[in-house]
Amino acid sequence: FLPHLVASLEQVEQTYIMVKPDGVQRGLVGEIISRFERKGFKLTGLKLFQCPKELAEEHCKDLKTKSFYPTLIDYITSGPVVCMVWEGVGVVASARKLIGSTNPLQAEPGTIRGDLAVQTGRNVVHGSDSPENGKRETALWFKEGELCEWTPAQAPWLME
Ligand code: UDP
Ligand code: MG
């Protein structure tokens, strides 16, 4: 069934997307989920979660030497976040484009940060920067039983 879709399975990537505490507090959760949903990617994990400090530190470990690291950890743990995994061919790079540049003032209009934020330290959303980190971050934030494999009804209308 749908052999053309199965053929591209090895190209399917996962990306870890997170609405940061400012996005949750500002009531932007639906808006942000909507953008990935409307694009046509597949949601395979979703939860509201209060991130413990140790997890924030593990997630941000590559930024440990940066001056903004302590405030970044405070920010990420300052309230609930919405954790998501989205799947699809090319989803990692495409999600980064949908999110926009790190500094929201430089992010293009039409992107999440370009439309909804003004400051790097309050840039409302996270997205994995490579397929490898997509897998790493998915495994870090979700237990296996929390992810859902399913075939959206719209699949044959998204890919020929
Ligand atoms: N960040 C910050 N100040 C900076 C750079 C980054 O507060 O000068 C924060 C910001 O929340 C950013 C996060 O650290 O989203 C991770 O930085 P990265 O360079 O990975 O940016 P991203 O991949 O989120 O665009
Ligand atoms: Mg990053």
UniProtKB/TrEMBL annotation:
Region of the whole protein represented: 77 to 236 of 236
Cofactor(s) essential for the protein: Mg(2+)
Limits of the Nucleoside diphosphate kinase-like domain: 12-149
Name of the featured protein: Nucleoside diphosphate kinase
Family: Belongs to the NDK family.
Organism the protein comes from: Gossypium tomentosum (Hawaiian cotton)
Any single biological process term in GO: GTP biosynthetic process
GO MF entries: ATP binding; nucleoside diphosphate kinase activity
EC number(s) on file: 2.7.4.6
Active site residues of this protein: H126
Alphabetized UniProt keyword annotations: ATP-binding, Kinase, Nucleotide-binding, Transferase
